[in-house]
Amino acid sequence: SSTMSLSEAEVQSARGAWEKIYVDAEDNGTTVLVRMFTEHPDTKSYFTHFKGMDSAEEMKQSDQVRGHGKKVFSAINDMVQHLDNSEAFLGVVNPLGKKHATQLKIDPKNFRIICDIILQVMEEKFGGDCKASFEKVTNEICTHLNNVYKEAGW
């Protein structure tokens, strides 16, 4: 009884797409975050130590931005490894969602923003097929995170 709507073939091609961007997890994770902070400056308010940073260059050099970029990519990687096992997938998503909803109080719309930026970067670096293979995965992740938020009474 899988809660996932991905076929085995879709899981395989999504993993192939993800591997391409995950090889450089820290650099690509940093690129994604810097773009988010630049294009959606309100997202910086959640990170007290990023608030004073205005230039993209400054953000790119920041150990804290780089560290968080890597952390985001590691979390997604854990989800990607469990796309064919909904119990294990939810075992990653649920605590992550709960923490962001209750402790960090992050607006859930930011998950969609970050997923869309990941898809943009995939397309720029590896083409439209790569992006298309991963799109369903980002929808799964965002849907499940939103469900966790609802359960948390967001």
Automatic annotation (TrEMBL):
It is an enzyme of class 1 (oxidoreductase). SUPFAM superfamilies: Globin-like. The keyword Heme applies. It comes from the Eukaryota. Keywords: Heme, Iron, Metal-binding, Oxygen transport, Transport. The keyword Metal-binding applies. Pfam families: Globin (PF00042). It catalyses: Fe(II)-heme b-[protein] + nitric oxide + O2 = Fe(III)-heme b-[protein] + nitrate; 2 superoxide + 2 H(+) = H2O2 + O2; H2O2 + AH2 = A + 2 H2O; Fe(III)-heme b-[protein] + nitric oxide + H2O = Fe(II)-heme b-[protein] + nitrite + 2 H(+). Its EC number is 1.15.1.1. One of its GO terms (molecular function) is superoxide dismutase activity. Coiled coil: none annotated. Transmembrane segments: none annotated. Residues 5-150 form the Globin domain. Belongs to the globin family. Involved in oxygen transport from the lung to the various peripheral tissues. This is superoxide dismutase. It comes from Chionis minor.
